[in-house]
Amino acid sequence: MFSKxxxxxxxxANVLIYVKGEGVVMHEPSVVSIDAxxxxxxxxxxxxxxxxGRTPGRVLAIRPxxxxxxxxxxVTEMMLQYFVRKLKLKGMFSRPTILICCPSNITSVxxxxxxxxxxxxxxxxxxxxxxxxxxxIGAHLDISKPTGSMVLDIGGGTTDVAILSLGEIVTSxxxxxxxxxxxxxxxxxxxxxxxxxxxDRTAEMIKMNIxxxxxxxxxxxxxxxxxxxxxxxxxxxxxxxQLRADETEKAIHESLQDIVRAxxxxxxxxxxxxxxxxxxxxxxLTGGGALLHGLDKLIMHELSIPVYVAENALTCVAExxxxxxxxxxxxx
Length: 332
Hints:
Elements: E1 5-10, E2 14-19, E3 23-29, E4 32-35, E5 41-44, H1 46-49, E6 59-62, E7 65-66, E8 69-70, H2 73-86, E9 97-102, H3 108-120, E10 125-130, H4 131-138, E11 149-154, E12 159-165, E13 168-175, H5 179-194, E14 196-197, H6 200-209, H7 218-223, E15 225-232, E16 238-244, H8 245-268, H9 272-281, E17 283-286, H10 295-303, E18 307-309, H11 316-331
Parallel strand pairs: 1-9, 9-10, 11-17, 17-18
Antiparallel strand pairs: 1-2, 2-3, 4-5, 4-6, 7-8, 11-12, 12-13, 14-15, 15-16
Helix pairs in contact: 2-3, 4-11, 5-6, 5-8, 8-10
């Protein structure tokens, strides 16, 4: 097999690329900025993300993936081509074998769009795998045995819940409530409570710095405060407010309950033998959303099952593609 093997975690918020033999070599936001008139690509990744919400009229900063699937085919292709070029694969290795991950319940049309985009970005061969399965492998769960493993993978656009056994998904569900929805909840809370309009990037900073899913120590959370700046909706002028950590729990409560309900639904559909395994082995949280403060405690409280956050939660899927690529030689 004489082509370089590349694993891509094509996420709504971030793209992670794993090159066989080198590990995770790229971790960039899934954002492309283009010139609205010439349709020419101006920047990709972090550079383009810095432009979000700050561009002049003719520059568009676009997130081409929405809810885990391709919303803008041309721009996704542009982004993949840019990343593949950036890998600088030389000579006979220049057309890589690519393994891409997708949410567990996307349609065959959406799946085909992902593989088409990869082929047009220069892939020699394309394999598509379901995200929760790859996340479980990346979190070093042994899914090849006849015991149940449960993974909750919370990304930017989608949350995947799956129970795996004997190397395959037994039951799973995917919902469009994830990191982006939590950002929107925070924007709405600040707007309704303080009459202050903030952007997506500010909301993301709140989520990463002070947002909490579980009020374990209210006194301590009340002292965690963040200065949040935006446009005052009453005066139309810039303004700054102080946002407390304990307020964020109320803002994101409903969305997190949707995720808990999805876990409950998957558990209800699980064969009893596998359910027994999950009670002892617990749920593993992966994806960027797994890093939300107190989320493990909330899920443990709601479902009475042990919950663990994967050590490499952010890079689980990309590392999982790496492990799968090692084994693709056998079939490739």
